[in-house]
Design brief:
This protein has 4 helices and 3 strands; from the N terminus they run H-E-H-H-H-E-E. It is of the alpha+beta class. Helix 1 crosses helix 4 and helix 2 packs across helix 4.
């Protein structure tokens, strides 16, 4: 899924509409992941959302500790312009802290 790709790469290029949709779900996932290191129910919720073991471990062990102090706005959407083929607006969605 796109959430898994966003966790793995920490920055993906997609249409602006999908990026806004991903932002909502990523914020919720990061909130769950904050307490997931010692919590089995939280880890299982993450397991139901992310499709790869690598993404789950990266979220819990690397990204969540980095985001512990941040309350909100943990993702950033950067508009890139329009796509050549159909003119759809294209954006980067990235996790704050990686590319700052």
């Amino acid at each position: 899924t796109m959430l898994t790709q966003l966790v793995q790469h920490e920055r993906i290029r997609t249409t602006h509409t999908k990026a806004k949709f991903l932002r909502q779900h990523m914020e919720k996932l990061l909130t769950i992941a904050k307490d997931a290191e010692g919590s089995i129910p939280a880890q299982r919720r993450i397991q139901g959302i992310l499709t790869t073991e690598f993404a789950r471990k990266k979220l819990i062990l690397e990204i969540a500790p980095r985001m512990k102090e941040v309350k909100s706005h943990r993702t950033r959407i950067v508009r890139l312009g329009t796509r050549k083929g159909d003119g759809a607006p294209v954006s980067y969605i990235e996790l704050v802290g990686k590319y700052t």
